[in-house]
Amino acid sequence: RKEYYKSRIHKPLILYDRVLLGISSRRGKTVEGTIRLVRANPREAIREDELEALVFRGLWEFINRYRGWAALKLGVHELDLVVHDLDVTDIRLGTHRIFNPVGFHGRELFIAYRGTFISRESHTFVDHFRHLGKEYYIVEKSIAILRVLRETNDILVHAGMQETAVFVSKKDEESLYHNRYAWGLSRLIDSVTRLFRVDYDVAVKILDWYTKNQLSERMRRILEMRFKKQIQELFTMLAPVSGTLGMFRPVVHCFFECSAPFLKQWFTGFPVRLALVRERAYAQGFTIHEPADAGMSFLEKPCEGALALVSYPFVIHQYAFLNQIVKRRVRWLIPHH
């Protein structure tokens, strides 16, 4: 697959303004985490050289806290990790959010960092996209979706065809990947193949008819009994997650990698909601143009993944000054050309 894509990636005559690359959780881990720093002389005003030292100290704590975790989740050695797009995304002096702490007094500084850890092997592959645009950003796609939806304590259930991944966001603390579960949307297809004793392609066609509301009422009820059972199995599998994480009444968002808005009818009785990325994009002023038949095929990838990438704050202009410090200090950590 790598050679397939590499052979088709050509530098355009006119560079794109910005290239946004959403990678799978198997290729990389995007982490957003807050580091608490205690100043030695809280009564003195923060100077620029002290701020630079604090930012660098916090950056090292961030990398040391999550590098081993990312290596374990990606199945590689820590020395085989590359960090992309290290940024400061938020800063607070005590309980006050500020853009530039220079000149302020205080004892505790809380700096939120963001970075994407990928293996060197994956870096070699994704780096082929770098030359397509003037600016180039990478993020774990599920984290982009979670960031767009985030309220307070949130859990994102991202269901693919073969498995489901869970991501957790604790406001003002961290957002990251949690775990992977052996439940995929292929179970819905398999249930149709077993029910009607048909092959995979025919089963998908039946699901397309269901999506387009082109089946008889009796056939719909038969299918819905099977679908409901599968969705209940997923929620039963996920039930212990919030307790394990010590989260009190989190908001659980479900994002399905298919055209499956009908699945939300079985959320009743479970504290979950369908991921409303589209609604958040509308609220940010985006206009969405889609073909008239969009969402009519079960296997059609929803546009919400792309919308989340467009909505994701890759650049936070308020912290440009702090991120200049970060870039100056970590050039040897981040791949560049």
Features:
two-stranded parallel ribbon, 337 residues, nine-stranded mixed beta sheet, alpha/beta, 11 strands
Write the layout of secondary structure elements.
Elements: H1 2-6, E1 16-23, E2 28-38, H2 48-74, E3 81-93, E4 96-97, E5 108-119, H3 120-126, E6 133-140, H4 141-149, E7 153-159, E8 164-170, E9 174-181, H5 186-196, H6 200-211, H7 217-238, H8 241-245, E10 251-256, E11 272-274, H9 277-283, H10 304-311, H11 320-329
Parallel strand pairs: 1-6, 7-10, 10-11
Antiparallel strand pairs: 2-5, 2-9, 3-4, 3-5, 7-8, 8-9
Describe what this molecule looks like in 3D.
- α4 packs across α10 and α5 crosses α7 (217-238).
- The protein starts with a helix and ends in an 8-residue tail after the last helix.
- The chain contains 11 helices and 11 strands.
- It has helices at residues 2-6, 48-74, 120-126, 141-149, 186-196, 200-211, 217-238, 241-245, 277-283, 304-311, 320-329, and strands at 16-23, 28-38, 81-93, 96-97, 108-119, 133-140, 153-159, 164-170, 174-181, 251-256, 272-274.
- The mean pLDDT is 84.
- With 337 residues, the chain is α/β, with parallel strands linked by helices.
- The protein is elongated and about 75 Å long.
- 31% of the residues are buried.
- A 9-stranded mixed beta sheet has the order 4-3-5-2-9-8-7-10-11, sandwiched between helices. A two-stranded parallel sheet has the order 1-6.
- The longest helix is centred in the N-terminal third of the chain and has 27 residues, at 48-74.
Task: Give a summary of the structure in a few sentences.
By secondary structure, the chain is α/β, with parallel strands linked by helices.
